[in-house]
Design goal:
Blueprint (H helix, E strand, L loop, with lengths): L14 E9 L3 E8 L5 E2 L12 H12 L4 H12 L5 H19 L10 E10 L2 E10 L5 E7 L5 H14 L1
Antiparallel strand pairs: 1-2, 2-3, 4-5, 5-6
Helix pairs in contact: 1-3, 2-3
Amino acid sequence: MENKVKCSYCKSDAVVKRGLSQTQHRGKQQRYLCKNCERTFIPDFGFWKMKNNEAKITKAIDLYFSNLSSRKVRNNYRRHENTPVSHVTVLDWCRKYTLKVQKYVNHFTPQLSGEYYADETEINRGKNNDIFWCSVDWGTRFINATLYSPFAQNMADAKEFMQRIKQSG
């Protein structure tokens, strides 16, 4: 059987299971012993030192990206899970794990169809009107280019945006 767990200290894969560690919020966690450096550790699978368990965090992120607001996700947890979760915590989870996924996904090259849908959105920010440009591949729904401009619509930003679309594929 292939052991995917590596030592957190020396990166050796010569590890054996060495009991369980009981945590207050996440329950029992498997503890390992490294045969090389003889230290025990609990492996980091992306949820290291998180107060809530993986299922709760991934469910919150899924609900948020399914077009529920962070406050509606919080209300969902209060009603159905009987768990107090702040709406700010939901946003923090989304930010943290979106960045982790982005680092992973950036290693792949998307297979784009070559047909793009571009749109601009005007954002009223006080007395300023900012513009957010976004281009989406028609076949894959992959966002291939974006541009945020703190100025009103102008030709220079439009040319810059079109250049980004061309560079992306």
